[in-house]
Each structure stands twice: as structure tokens, then as C-alpha cells.
Amino acid sequence: MKFIVEQLAFSPKSEAGKRFLKELFNFGAWVEDAVIAEGEVFGEKGINEANLSFGYQDTPDKLEVENLRYTKGNNWIKNKKACVSHVGMHVTAAELSKWRSFMEDRYVSIAQEVTTKSHTNEFLVNNGRTYNYTIFSTRELIGTDIKFIVRIDA
Predict the structure, then answer these.
(1) CATH number at residue 139
(2) Where in the sequence is the domain holding 17, given as residue range(s)?
(3) To bridge 27 with a disulfide, which of 55, 58, 78, 121 should be the other Cys (CB 3.0-4.6 Å)?
(4) Which carries the bigger pLDDT value, residue 47 or residue 59?
């Protein structure tokens, strides 16, 4: 197994921070999505809501830059200042299972695991796609957390 950074996510705490991030990366159009997700944050069940923006580098790897702002509910970065919230990789459910074992063997716990219940992004709505997000608490080890993203197609 090899972790490949496909997503670099920032969590600005203000509209000014969100604008700065978009201007800094200057991708042009960003993909917007408002998400409601349900699951667990540090072992507590709950629902959270977030506004997401995605920009894509014009390179062969198409690194995805995420602008993540939670608006309601508990989340794993609720008490953090503006930060690089995570680095992420898209995986299958089977690959996630292997990564879970990898993390458990190294005593790395899950910070947040949720399944999205609704999206506002037209592509996701029209295709019935949702996601399972599993975020491992690696911030103290490497400076940011690691997120695995499983696409769930209808």
C-alpha cells in the first residue's frame, strides 16, 4: 500500500480566509457543494454540515484543493484555528479496510467517520453519489490528519 496525496484541504475560519485561498491558488472556477453528513466524531454520534469548494491543479495528477468550512454540528477540527485540515486519498471500501488495519497496527485512532446524506452539487445530486469520509487522527504525528474518501454511487 502506498498513500498518494490526491487532496489537500484547508480550513479557513472566515470568509476572508476562504477568498484568500481561492485567490492564492487561482484555479478559476471552483466546484461548490454544501454537505450534510452523519456519523461519529471522536466516538460521538452526530450530524454536521459543511460548505466545500474544490479547485483542481492543471497538472497530470489533478491535485484537488479543498476549501472546507463547517457550518453546523460537531466536527474533528471544531476547536482548531485555521489550518491544513487534512491530506486525502480516494479509495475503495476494500482499500479502506486495509488502511484501517494499517492505522490500528500503529495505534492511530479515527477522528471522524461520516457518510454524506445530501449534497447541493448538481453532478452529485444527478448521479446519486454520496461519500464515506474516514479521517484518522495523525495531526500529532505528522502535522495534519489523513482522510480516506470512498465514493458511493447509486
Answers:
(1) 3.10.180.10
(2) 7-149
(3) 55
(4) 47
Cβ(37)–Cβ(47) under 8 Å?
A: yes
pLDDT in tens, 109-154: 999 999 999 999 999 999 999 999 999 999 999 999 999 999 999 8
Backbone φ and ψ for 114, nearest 5 degrees, come out as -135, 160
Domain count, the chain: 1
Residue 14 lies in a domain: yes
Rounded CA gap, 99 and 7, in Å?
17
pLDDT value of residue 154? 81
Domain-located, residue 154:
no
Instruction: Give domain status of residue 84, yes or no.
Output: yes
Contacts of 129 (CB under 8 A, 6+ apart): 119, 123, 151, 152, 153, 154
Q: Is residue 2 part of a domain?
A: no
Instruction: Calculate the CA 97 to chain-centre distance.
Output: 18
Give the count of beta carbons closer than 10 Å to the beta carbon of residue 78.
12
Bridge partners of 115, per DSSP, are 38, 132
What integer pLDDT is reported at residue 122 of this predicted model?
94
Other CB atoms within 10 Å distance of the CB of residue 4:
10
Exposed/middle/buried for residue 45 (C-beta within 10 Å: 0-12, 13-18, 19+):
exposed
